[in-house]
Amino acid sequence: MTPKHPSESLTILTDLVLPSETNPLNNLFGGELLARMDRAASISARRHSRRIVVTASVNHVAFNRAIPLGSVVTVEAKVSRAFKSSMEIFIDIWVEDRESGNKTKANEAIYTFVAVDDTGRPVEVPQLIPETELEKQRYEAALRRKQLSLVIAGKMNPHDATELKALFI
Ligand SMILES: CC(C)(COP(=O)(O)OP(=O)(O)OC[C@H]1O[C@@H](n2cnc3c(N)ncnc32)[C@H](O)[C@@H]1OP(=O)(O)O)[C@@H](O)C(=O)NCCC(=O)NCCS
């Protein structure tokens, strides 16, 4: 399988925050943002693998900044590392200033998707070759995050999480 670059899975979704999508403080409801991120990440994983993909886990979400009603929100998703059948997707959330048009980062998240066949069984995906400095950093750290996610899910014995343990030694 020919390896791919992160830019080939880049997915950008831009949309407004409407009144039905806000909480009582008139900021974007967290669940709505999670859904937008899941959608963008799913397209990204599909672009990388060209297979059916399913969300295996939400590894990390940071709601650092509230996003007010009427904001223009951009969800930017890219595969940050591919393993055998799973792909880590890194998502950056940007909010656009109405007057200047400048975008500031509001949140970020990391999802894991798995490529599956028609019966839902995991299938292999192309490997990823990071290019930019940021892509390389995210690629390097992805194995630790995968091990952490598997340990938390009870799918990996902590003793086998070598990359993760190396952080603390
Ligand atoms: C995700 C799913 C396909 C994994 O199937 P499985 O039988 O556990 O298969 P495996 O154990 O072989 O795992 C497949 C891959 O997923 C990875 N994976 C599974 N659970 C994971 C988790 N919690 N975190 C990170 N990676 C995980 C495995 O490490 C493996 O990766 P690799 O092949 O790249 O090494 C299966 O659990 C599933 O279909 N879940 C439901 C998905 C869904 O419906 N999502 C929508 C949510 S509503």
UniProtKB/TrEMBL annotation:
One of its GO terms (biological process) is acyl-CoA metabolic process. Residues 7-119 form the HotDog ACOT-type domain. Keywords: Hydrolase. GO terms for cellular component: cytoplasm. InterPro entries: Cytosol_ACT, HOTDOG_ACOT, HotDog_dom_sf, Thioestr_dom. The keyword Amino-acid biosynthesis does not apply. GO terms for molecular function: long-chain fatty acyl-CoA hydrolase activity. Pfam families: 4HBT. The keyword Hydrolase applies. Belongs to the acyl coenzyme A hydrolase family. This is Acyl-CoA hydrolase. It comes from Flavobacterium segetis. The lineage of its organism: Bacteria, Pseudomonadati, Bacteroidota, Flavobacteriia, Flavobacteriales.
